[in-house]
Design goal:
The protein is an alpha/beta fold. It has 9 helices and 11 strands. The strands form 2 sheets. It has an 8-stranded mixed sheet with strand order 5-4-6-1-7-9-2-10, with helices on both faces. It has a 3-stranded mixed sheet with strand order 8-3-11. Helix 2 packs parallel to helix 7, helix 3 runs parallel beside helix 9 and helix 5 runs parallel beside helix 7.
Length: 320
């Protein structure tokens, strides 16, 4: 005896449902792909405008002192209005936070190696055939190339060109630093580069408010030259992300205390932040609370290398 038609129909429907979910399950398990495969960035450049205050950069409504960042770079990238140094607001600790994803009160005179590696040593460990550089107007920032950590001391070091002639040689003019950058870019095309321009901080320490304002505009023009190089270079164009920020700001009073920095006032903590690159959104201004230690973590994500022992977070809001 054959079963009634209604049971045959129910059996058929059951087979169809089972087949559908089995098919979906197989598709899910065979299409897993690492997110890093989607990144177009192959090279990263971090540019630090040393000691410029947010109120004279992006916080000034007309952006008159940073026309290149505001008119040429920002429309192609992301500006964050809510970016801060939440560690020690001095040059060496600020740069260390940017490069390591960790806050540490590093000796600001250049006499102390970081107790942990920066992203340069981790990057070079992962990619020994690639090329990284630290190019800075301040000689003391050469300490960022190495660490006192026993497992990494004198290992996986980046190339450096800092100050007049390395540690202890003194500071140099930003125009000279730019020439070094362009020469290294033309001849070596490094995959990971930190650039420091000293002048806004150096001039402000002389209590020269007019010179301080002028040097912000000068560094803006130098950043624009680097931006144009990347845009027009056959290797860097379409493969390079740029981060622009400050190591620290300045005390709040432009007509008095602005010459110094180093405390937790808003002027010292609030920083410029701009990110531009093939994986980032374009012409976007955000207000997501972020801080210096998030830069290195985001770079480690897009260049796919490990950055341990950090409290930083990937800035997911930057990505397309």
């Amino acid at each position: 005896m054959h079963p009634p038609k209604k049971y045959l129909i129910l059996i058929l429907i059951s087979y169809l449902i089972i087949g559908f979910f089995t098919s979906c399950s197989k598709t899910t398990t065979t299409t897993t792909t690492s997110p890093t495969n989607y990144y177009k960035t192959e090279n990263v450049i971090i540019i630090v405008m040393d000691g410029a205050r947010y109120s004279e950069t992006w916080g000034e409504p007309t952006h008159s002192l940073i026309p290149s960042i505001a008119n040429n770079i920002a429309p192609k990238g992301v500006i964050n209005n809510n970016f801060r140094n939440n560690g020690t607001t001095s040059t060496s600790p600020g740069h260390l936070a940017i490069c390591s994803g960790q806050y540490y009160n590093l000796n600001n005179g250049g006499g102390q190696l970081p107790p942990f590696p920066t992203m340069f040593q981790y990057f070079n460990e992962k990619y020994p055939t690639k090329n990284s550089w630290i190019i800075t107007s301040k000689d003391k920032l050469e300490v960022l190339a190495n660490t006192s950590h026993t497992s990494y001391n004198n290992l996986h070091l980046p190339n450096t060109n800092c100050g007049i002639n390395g540690m202890g040689s003194g500071y140099r003019a930003d125009d000279i630093t730019l020439n070094v950058v362009l020469n290294v870019f033309n001849t070596q095309h490094p995959n990971l580069t930190l650039i420091n321009f000293r002048e806004p901080d150096f001039t402000a320490h002389s209590n020269d408010s007019i010179g301080y304002i002028k040097q912000i505009s000068n560094v803006d023009s130098l950043i624009n030259i680097i931006f144009n190089f990347v845009e027009n270079d056959s290797i860097y164009n379409g493969t390079t992300s740029i981060f622009i920020t400050n190591d620290h700001g300045r005390h709040d009073n432009l007509n008095g205390g602005f010459a110094g920095h180093g405390d937790s006032c808003e002027g010292c903590r609030h920083l410029l932040f701009c990110a531009y690159g093939p994986d980032f959104k374009e012409n976007v201004v955000i207000n997501t609370p972020r801080e210096q230690i998030d830069i290195a973590v985001t770079i480690a994500e897009i260049l796919s290398f490990n950055l341990p022992n950090t409290n930083g977070q990937i800035m997911q809001e930057l990505f397309k």
